[in-house]
């Protein structure tokens, strides 16, 4: 896997670019989050998505009720069993999202230079003259000249189903707007985005709390994607809410940065959250187009240095209706990988797209190619410099393991962990080979029954670049004498051999705890 690593700075024969890539067990180090919906909820399609490389399934509660999503999740569980591919579950909240409700679902035509009124009166029927919205405070938040965007839910940007409006005047609770482009709004739900304006809606709404307790708790969700995170306090409040819900105290919170407000408080949000989702659809509306790339590069760099997973959205919109991405999109996916993103999130492309499996497969192939030219050497030096000295004990072990693996051209790094932290630290240094994270379950008791921890930790590494989890037998503790560790190591090596990642005479770097000491060792395999 590491041997076909090349750097763009080195002279490459142009013809060699066209040579087909070798197939490998892990399609790419970069992970893919797929949104499951109408086009991707059958067992067959989900199985196809898992085989193509999806490792996290996102359930978007902006539409669909708990029963609908439960049916999809049950199908996902069936697909996981039949494909033997691990997959984590992410619940995406609605958050402070303004929506236009079109009960009749009839198409609405809007003509350029005409006017349309946005009203909080939900009793009104949506038409070319009036659009009812789910928020009473819009009139207080906007002023003449402000920009408002309305688009089909999960619009791809290429459709003629989105419209730009300019506020003409505010009349009581109603907002009268001038239409800037001709468009036809189709569907039952449109999202409304007021550019660079503070919207006084809670980040975690009552509806979100209902969904989390009714659906999230029984399904022990791995990730909560907190839509419209604007302040670090939003993350703290969400964590406080989850901590009261038993098992969900282990759920990781990913802050979704969707507007200027979230961008302004990015550093504080990053400190509080377990990971970040760059919601480029909404950000693209809030930011001037020439600033979008700059935000992406800066945000990804900050996440990488903090060792927290960063997820980029909205990459291959055109694949919602087409079998191939555009040239710009293919380049965009590669750049997201080179900029340092851990995972690519697919929304409309898998939710209502015609080619969910092909989209995941295509994105995975582009990621794998980009990873070959990722400048690991430069990245490693930058990370070590950023961490500074003296390094913490764990940080020193993690960076040493990666350096050793690269020097001896190891085919894989095996890390024993019970919390998952050590494995995530190794992955932070972006080794060129996969990191097998062997999660050793811990026995817990609440005085009524015994239970094992570990499943959460294993699934939560499915969103981290280069990290591939396996759950060990709980009879082998992570911190123990070398004899029991040897047997776990044998299981991990056998798994590596069976999956084709490890071959005879390969070198493997192992990172483990023996007693109180952390040990990095290099082993060479015999025939």
UniProtKB/TrEMBL annotation:
<dbReference type="GO" id="GO:0016301">
    <property type="term" value="F:kinase activity"/>
</dbReference>
<keyword id="KW-0479">Metal-binding</keyword>
<keyword id="KW-0418">Kinase</keyword>
<keyword id="KW-0324">Glycolysis</keyword>
<keyword id="KW-0670">Pyruvate</keyword>
<dbReference type="Pfam" id="PF02887">
    <property type="entry name" value="PK_C"/>
</dbReference>
<dbReference type="InterPro" id="IPR011037">
    <property type="entry name" value="Pyrv_Knase-like_insert_dom_sf"/>
</dbReference>
<feature type="domain" description="Pyruvate kinase C-terminal">
    <location>
        <begin position="395"/>
        <end position="515"/>
    </location>
</feature>
<dbReference type="InterPro" id="IPR015813">
    <property type="entry name" value="Pyrv/PenolPyrv_kinase-like_dom"/>
</dbReference>
<dbReference type="InterPro" id="IPR015793">
    <property type="entry name" value="Pyrv_Knase_brl"/>
</dbReference>
<feature type="domain" description="Pyruvate kinase barrel">
    <location>
        <begin position="30"/>
        <end position="360"/>
    </location>
</feature>
<dbReference type="InterPro" id="IPR040442">
    <property type="entry name" value="Pyrv_kinase-like_dom_sf"/>
</dbReference>
<comment type="similarity">
    <text>Belongs to the pyruvate kinase family.</text>
</comment>
<dbReference type="InterPro" id="IPR015795">
    <property type="entry name" value="Pyrv_Knase_C"/>
</dbReference>
<dbReference type="InterPro" id="IPR015806">
    <property type="entry name" value="Pyrv_Knase_insert_dom_sf"/>
</dbReference>
<keyword id="KW-0067">ATP-binding</keyword>
<dbReference type="GO" id="GO:0004743">
    <property type="term" value="F:pyruvate kinase activity"/>
</dbReference>
<dbReference type="GO" id="GO:0000287">
    <property type="term" value="F:magnesium ion binding"/>
</dbReference>
<dbReference type="Pfam" id="PF00224">
    <property type="entry name" value="PK"/>
</dbReference>
<keyword id="KW-0547">Nucleotide-binding</keyword>
<dbReference type="GO" id="GO:0005524">
    <property type="term" value="F:ATP binding"/>
</dbReference>
<protein>
    <recommendedName>
        <fullName>Pyruvate kinase</fullName>
        <ecNumber>2.7.1.40</ecNumber>
    </recommendedName>
</protein>
<dbReference type="InterPro" id="IPR036918">
    <property type="entry name" value="Pyrv_Knase_C_sf"/>
</dbReference>
<dbReference type="InterPro" id="IPR001697">
    <property type="entry name" value="Pyr_Knase"/>
</dbReference>
<comment type="pathway">
    <text>Carbohydrate degradation; glycolysis; pyruvate from D-glyceraldehyde 3-phosphate: step 5/5.</text>
</comment>
<dbReference type="GO" id="GO:0030955">
    <property type="term" value="F:potassium ion binding"/>
</dbReference>
<keyword id="KW-0808">Transferase</keyword>
<keyword id="KW-0460">Magnesium</keyword>
